[in-house]
Design a protein that fits this description.
The complex is a heterodimer of chains A (265) and B (268). Chain A has 265 residues and is mainly α. Helix content of chain A is 72%, strand content 0%. Chain A is globular and about 65 Å long. Chain A starts with a helix and ends with a helix. Chain B has 268 residues and is an alpha/beta fold. Chain B has one domain: Rossmann fold. In chain B, strand 1 and strand 2 form a beta hairpin. In chain B, helix 2 packs across helix 3, helix 3 packs across helix 5 and helix 9 packs parallel to helix 10. The chains are: A mainly alpha (265), B alpha/beta (268). At the A-B interface, helix 8 and helix 10 of A face strand 5 and helix 2 of B.
Chain lengths: 265, 268
Amino acid sequence: MIGETPRLLTFQAGDSVLHRLDPRTKLLATFAVVAAALMASLPLGMIVAYAMGACIGLGAVHLLPQLWRVLRPLLVLIALFGVLITIVTPGHAIIHIAFIVPTTDGLLLAIRLGLQSLLIIYTTSLLSISTPPLAIADSLQWAFGWLERVRVPVRDVIAMVAIGLTFVPLLIEEAQKVIAAQRARGADLTMNALLEEDSMGALMIPLLLANLRRGEELAESMEARLYNTGRRTALHQYHFRRIDAYAAAIVLAFLVAVAVVSFVL
Amino acid sequence: MSLLEHTGRQALSVDAGEIVSVLGAPGSGKSHLALELAFLARPRDGEVLFRGANPLARGRGRQTQRPRQVTMLVQNAEEQLFARTVFDDVAFGPRHLLLDDAEIERRVLEALVAVRLDPAVVRDRSPFALSGGERRRVALAGVLAMEPEVLILDEPTSNLDPRTRADFIELLHPLRGRAAIVWFTANAVEASQASRIYVLQDGETHEVKSGGELMHDWRRLAAAGIDLPAVYELAGALERRGATLTEAASPSEMREAIVRDWRVRRDR
């Protein structure tokens, strides 16, 4: 009931091209796709941006069916928002149906936003499925470490994010356990019932307590192993390899192509 | 026709008024089987039948619903308490049955008495103010207040200290009259108190002899990774070193067999 989507989005070990790339390369590529999606013009720029997404997808074809299961429900949501945007945006009317007036401007905006969000979700999902959470955290630190100089606690924030990401599967498991337990004693924890205050508490309070307990244990065990917030060395060092250079070149080429197609042509 | 029945490779059945135990090593799949029997997980194979019918089988135009007469005490059930007072927590299930207030109150008080908590003392306290053992009893009361026909217990004594554990087991015996019980455990001594015993190993159940007879199979139980009293571990270790012990079942017989073997060797 709960948890199909997050489970599908957690890291899965594998040996695809995407898995073999340095996590930093993947992070930068993700940023590049986001940038491409945001600046792409309709329709040519967007076509090139989607070609870029498809090219990245080729790096891990076996993950795509699973990704489709994540994206499919989102398509419905995007379509719904699209309809809404088409109707509420002022502009040149396509047709008048009583007081509902879809406009061409609205339609174009809806298409653009829909395509942008789909591409961004697709790429970030690929990143999170093909990269261990800790590697994502390490590369975020690599990318944003310079902010430490202006006293932004990058390390601490990233340590928190990394721990959070690592525990997502456990949280899902925990939630399923609580739901089963409360159903076993007669509760009707369907989605409708969850919105009642009483049933909400039956799910949220045991979950919250379990998480506090886990947090406390984790903090103690980290302190027992002398975790502190100073400068740290890494157990796993990342090295850019030739494959990363190829990937970066392809991504950069696509990014430039999107820019050229969108702004120059 | 049994009250509750599993027809898969993990076949087992329980009738009204019976305590059946399922003995399995940690990791043998006890918890999943327990969820299957409580209609909270899809059986890996076969079907689970309640009164001879599968309530989750889709009929034409009929919504399926898990039978409320089957309840389960999950592992470490005290972690699932959440309400402001003990009374409210125990009343959580019955309230979902849409009973009137007087009936809810009767059931809650009866359930608290059945787990030997004094309703006058605990009913308005926070469940989080109680000790671990007491909280587990409140959780059991919450399940009993459903007045189930089948009660599934998933390692009800796990993570309790030995004395609390013994107290808790004493609670379970009088429940025999109220509901059929399926008691999952990794401990052979606990299991031997049931009227029938299944061993769960490699995803299959086998019915074994019950009561004092259970320990006749101690070699097989030890091989299945089940908790046995220390004397059987000693016996196993001696046999691996070449001792030949006479057949013995109960721990005291086993003790004698070991001593006898030791005397024979000494006199040789």
